[in-house]
Amino acid sequence: MELLGVFNQVMVPILFIVGAGFAFKKLTDVDVRPASRISLYLLSPALIFSVLVEAEIGGADALRSVGFMVLLTGVLGLLTFLFALPFGYERRTRTALLLCVMFSNTGNYGLPLALFAFGREGFEAAVIFFITQGVLAQTLGLYIAGSGQAGWRNGVLRLLGAPQIYAVLGALLIRYAGPEHVTESGNLLNDLFRGVDLMGQAAIPLLLVILGIELAGARISSDEGVQIGLATGLKLFAAVPISYAIAVLVGLGPLETRLAVILGSMPTAVNVVIFATEFDIKPKLVSSTVIVSTALSFVSLTALISLLGGG
């Protein structure tokens, strides 16, 4: 796909919805928390549930995708630690850099991107990457942010409180019992499933609107340019060859490999700002990296999708 064609077909719809959320925040000073909670507790779990029930994903393919995301997160964490050593950063700065580089925005940016770039098949495959990244963020990410003070117990409690986990378990149970019980028309279960599916369809635009609102409320720290540049460079550029190497290593298929490279080099996850704020882990540095990496990703990801080819 040509560069301009990729930008028009993939990025323009995303930018339009993100821009609408950005403008809405600037004009109304809306509180994003209610919308975020609706997305977290209702729409995103519904999206995950409906996609996993209907998706044609083999067990081995799903395990490879999970393995890819786990390995990538670990390698990026190690690389960040090694790059930070020569600078002699203190503990909080190193922790902030780990949060910025290890955890990607595979949800409210990555899922729509996969849908626009690779269609329904790509979107279904991207859900596995998103779920894995979400679990890692809620456990490993929380542990890193707490710098060992919060401990694994709090991480497990956070994980058990995440509705996405129960959406995954419910979908797997239905797949085991036979998805035809809910996907075939003419019965009450199918009517209920169509309601869940409709809720899930509302998640994509709302996720992008929330991203725009959150970006509008963030501020860039002018005195941490080196750290922001380091985190952004690792996140958007160094992650590309690393993601490809790991995808080949775990044996991902052609579509999954392209998705892995793209989702592996997504900008910093917005939700790590919450961790940084809660534990006072350089929140200005983290929020600034979210803004800069997201803005630059519209260019870097356009070029990457053009190089790899969309669906």
Automatic annotation (TrEMBL):
State whether keyword Cell membrane applies: yes
Keywords attached to this Swiss-Prot or TrEMBL record, sorted alphabetically, are: Cell membrane, Membrane, Transmembrane, Transmembrane helix, Transport
Q: Where in the cell is it found?
A: Cell membrane
Which residue ranges does UniProt annotate as crossing the membrane? 6-24, 36-53, 65-85, 97-119, 125-145, 157-178, 198-216, 228-253, 259-277, 289-309
This protein's GO CC annotations:
plasma membrane
**Membrane topology term:** Multi-pass membrane protein
Q: Where primarily located?
A: membrane
Is Cell membrane one of the keywords?
yes
Superkingdom of source: Bacteria
Q: Check the record and name the PANTHER family matching this protein.
A: AUXIN EFFLUX CARRIER FAMILY PROTEIN, SLR1864 PROTEIN
Family recorded in the similarity comment? Belongs to the auxin efflux carrier (TC 2.A.69) family.
**This protein's name:** AEC family transporter
Q: Which organism is it from?
A: Rubrobacter radiotolerans
